[in-house]
Amino acid sequence: MEGQQREITKMKPVTRVVSLFVSPKALMENIREYPAVLVPLIICALLAFAGLPLTNKLVDIQQRTFSNISIERYGVDYFNYTPFDEDGDLAQTISAVTQITTVAMLLISYPLNAFFSALGLFIITKIARGTCKLGQYFSMYTHVFIISALGGLLASFLMVTFDTILDSTSLAAVFMPLGDQSMPVFNILSSVTVFNVWITALTVIGVKAVNGFSTVRASVVCITGFVISVAIAVASLSATFIMYDFMSKV
Question: Which of 70, 174, 185, 194 keeps 20 to 30 A from 32, CA to CA?
């Protein structure tokens, strides 16, 4: 095993990206020895910026949808943030701040998500007595999040095209196409997308390669992490309406 590890040479950036799709096992074994992060983070940022026009349109669709839900649910529109003077200085200032905030979030979202995803999986793996290092998992997630960025582009394109917040790549599109984000079950199904399942499968390969785990043991670790991430996503999506439900009762 040690001899095989010494024979592994560092992959070039292009080879790493190609291997993500055609030879993920070789990529994960390379990450075990050479946990690079810069190139995949740059690719994720570029893909995010490419989808910025879609993101702006999607924000409008989401706000309109949430406004409709709020009016139907509470009789009040809690999501109408449009200034009264739409052509005045206040509107222009809010628009500029929104654009700056969006760009800033695009720059930091993937590194932050990769770090916290890596940290969570690192903790779970250590409980399972793995030998991984945090940097290895951070590198793994920066690579697999290229798929997340591509999936986000496709999902955003479909949402904007069909003028909906329904993710066509998720289970919600199959089982609750008429649902909305005020429904916890809809949020659970929305969190289970084709791309998230793909990423989880890749992390199983990564955890197995880094720690020398069996497929079953690596799957248990990664599925546990996936369930926790879904729970966090659902709690985040549902929190707003839970708060407004409480306020309306009070």
Answer: 194
Give every CB contact of residue 101 below 8 A, 6+ residues apart in sequence.
none
How many CA within 13 A on the CB side of residue 236? 8
pTM given for the model: 0.85
- Do 244 and 70 contact (CB within 8 A), yes or no? yes
Tokens of 129: 């007595």
pLDDT tens track, the chain, 250 positions: 444 445 789 999 999 999 999 999 999 999 999 999 999 999 999 998 888 888 888 888 988 888 888 888 877 887 775 554 555 555 555 555 666 676 667 778 889 999 999 999 999 999 999 999 999 999 999 999 999 999 999 999 999 999 999 999 999 999 999 998 888 899 999 999 999 999 999 999 999 999 999 999 999 999 999 999 999 988 888 888 888 777 776 5
**From residue 66, how far is each of 55, 62, 63, 235 by CA, in Å?**
16, 6, 5, 17
CA–CA gap between residue 119 and residue 173 (Å, rounded):
31
- For the chain, give every domain's residue range: 25-47+107-249
Q: Which two tokens stand for residue 143?
A: 């690579």
Is 170:233 a contact under the CB 8 Å cutoff?
Answer: no
Contact 186, 230 (CB under 8 A): no
